[in-house]
Amino acid sequence: MSRQSPGFSFRPLQEIDLPMLREWLLRPHIAEWWGSAESISELREDYAHAGEQNATRAYIGYLGASPMSFIQTYVVMGSGDGWWEEEADPGARGTDQFLAEPSQLGKGLGSSMIRAFLEQLFSDPVVTVVQTDPHPTNLRAIHAYSRAGFREVGPVDTPDGAALLMRCTRQTLEQASENVA
Question: Are 13 and 60 in contact (CB under 8 A)?
């Protein structure tokens, strides 16, 4: 496993994780925002290119030894398919994630996990900013992102529909971490 932060670690998604990921995607608290669950073969295809440059990289997040979340990251500039066509910063990264268990929601675990993952992303000096785009009515996610260090940029239209663009810099991550300490 890679970098650790207060009990969190992140391991690249592996073939063995696909049935678990599919089962997670079927859970109502996830399906509400992520849409219909894909088949295992579709998930395999989605993440088959993870080793290629600028590909989406997917991870299973752990709290201690237990898998507790899914998280993915990608290079924003040139992400294709109508996404972020105006982005000119090669250091911008995007991220999306969810907590697997409904019992984990509303306890600050999501924002702590996101902060730990942001620390990992910002350990790469090439990364200048990290963005995310929750649905504007997903108030739980917006709150977790805000607590983790993201700041609202404003509403945007994406290929998936309406979203709230949020961005995090090293400075806003440090401020968020100080507010928690």
Answer: yes
